[in-house]
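User: What would this chain look like folded?
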Amino acid sequence: MTKLILAAFVLLSTACAHQQVSVTTPTTPPENGQVSGAATPAPTSANTVDPVPARVADSDTTARPPWLKARIAAILAERKGNPIARIYRYDYGGQTVYFETLPCCDQFSNLFDTKGRLLCHPDGGLTGKGDGRCPDFDKNKTNEKLVWQDPR
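Assistant: Here's the prediction, encoded as structure tokens.
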């Protein structure tokens, strides 16, 4: 039995003998230093894709109404979300509104009026399109101001 196992090992190891394999990737420079025709362009060490910086909203410096202070306190009492919660102020539908983002995935975002009444859920949910009560919010919101973001 031992001879049989040894013979199988020898057979497999010789059948799978190492072969020289040459792999050329886009980051491997051409052998002659030149690139011509439809070959991969010469690699560069510089980043070829410039990341687009995230747009940063202007900060809202107005006093926060009591209901908004309470909402922020409630968010801080919960576990930190990923992504973090943010509250923006916009002009929408002829009024000032507050848009609250919520953590990942199927959760509804919230849109409040200046008195803290929930107007609608502009996005989120299973479809990602909110509750359908303000489908034009993203298109028609103006004057974005960042009111608050979770500092944790």
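The first helix runs from residue 2 to 15. If you want, I can go into more detail on any region.
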